[in-house]
Amino acid sequence: MLELPELEVSKDRLRLALVGRRVTAVELHKPAALEPTGVAPEKLVGAHFKNVSRVGRHLCFEFDSGISLYVNLGREGHVHLYERAPARPDAVLTIQCEKTGLRVSEQDSHRPVRIALLAGPEEVEWLGRLGLDPASPDFTLDRLRRVLERRDRPVRHILTDQRAIAGLGEAYADEILFEARLSPFQTTSELKPEEVIRLHAAIKKVIYLAVVYLKALPRIELPVERNRNLKVHRRKSGPCHACASAIQMVRDGKILTNYCPTCQTGGNILQDREPAPAKPTAR
Q1: Is residue 34 in a domain?
Q2: Which tens digits make up the pLDDT trace of 25-40?
Q3: Residue 249: exposure state from Cβ atoms within 10 A (0-12, 13-18, ≥19)
Q4: HSE on the CB side for 25, CA within 13 Å?
Q5: Do residues 193 and 250 share a domain?
Q6: Among 33, 120, 136, 270, which residue carries the largest CB count within 10 Å?
Q7: What share of the chain is helix, strand, coil (3-state, %, to 5)?
Q8: Which structural domain, as residue segments, surrounds residue 71?
Q9: pLDDT tens digit string along 144-198?
Q10: Rounded mean pLDDT of 10-27?
Q11: In this structure, what are the phi and psi dihedrals at residue 246, rounded to the nearest 5 degrees?
């Protein structure tokens, strides 16, 4: 899953490649991916790319016609720049311009790509629910503290809840918990004031360093998961960068988390947790 750092760097590189270019053709390969906003993809033909921005884990492509294209890449979605548009079975949407084009693709339909075309300032429902953006100047310690106070849940869950903190996923949540030296199962109500400060600093540091690292990649590339420089995520049994202990993995329902027992849990090996039973529905 592409997360905030990859999307932040991709946004900048897509802006350089696309702004000012005229759309000559649009093809929606998977109609089910399009949100029902009433704006047809064909409306983009003839428009020029005006800007590319990021909102949480969404990429926003703005056109001089007033239409905006929002893309949520889901779990296995990617964006590509190309000079020609060869047939691709995984393509969701292709936008052809003079000399270049944009392709949105996906390899997993379990959490599929979602696309919304907006003709004005109105928002689709899944954009209106987004929480704080860690890359924004508004992501202050006080605002994070208020988010944590409203929810008594494991910190690991808060980091990947887009309604609380927008843009993060499993990979950078693991890295942030490691940097903050917090247990994946520690709840927000258990956090001490100094731990909240460490968490805020860890979020800012991990995101900043990841963006700096990805910006050093060749400019012809758009970052993907394999470009990441991670310390704990998906490094089960590997040595911890700080203490050389073996990285462990724990399951919390469907969530898999990698952590260092020495740095984060006082030497304790965490036991897998089953998901909480569903509450009975009223009749």
Answers
A1: yes
A2: 999 999 999 988 889 9
A3: middle
A4: 11
A5: yes
A6: 33
A7: 30, 25, 45
A8: 4-128
A9: 999 999 989 999 999 999 999 999 999 999 999 999 999 999 999 999 999 999 9
A10: 95
A11: -75, 130
69, 102, 128: which is the final residue of a domain? 128
pLDDT for 121 equals: 59
**99 and 59, same structural domain?**
yes
C-beta separation of 117 from 34 below 8 A: yes
Domains in the chain: how many in total? 2
Cβ 240 vs Cβ 265: under 8 Å: no
Do 116 and 164 have their domain in common? Answer: no
Mean pLDDT on 109-132: 79
Answer for the pair 35, 114: CB distance below 8 angstroms, yes or no.
yes
Any idea what the CATH number is for the domain that residue 213 is in? 1.10.8.50
Domain membership flag for residue 70:
yes
Among 133, 131, 173, residue whose Cα is nearest residue 155: 173
Residue 174 sits in the same domain as residue 107: no
**Do residue 82 and residue 190 come from a single domain?**
no
Q: In whole angstroms, what is the distance from residue 268 CA to residue 265 CA? A: 5
End-to-end CA distance of the chain: 39
Q: Is 89 left (phi over 0), alpha (psi -120 to 50) or beta?
A: alpha
Q: What is the pLDDT of residue 87?
A: 64
Q: Let me know if 275 is exposed, middle or buried by CB neighbors in 10 A (0-12, 13-18, 19+).
A: exposed
Residue 279 counted as domain residue: no
pLDDT in tens, 49-59: 999 999 999 99
**Do residue 150 and residue 206 come from a single domain?**
yes
> Looking at this protein, which amino acid is placed at residue 31?
P
Question: Helix 170-180 to helix 193-215 angle, to the nearest 10 degrees?
Answer: 130
Does 15 map to a domain? yes
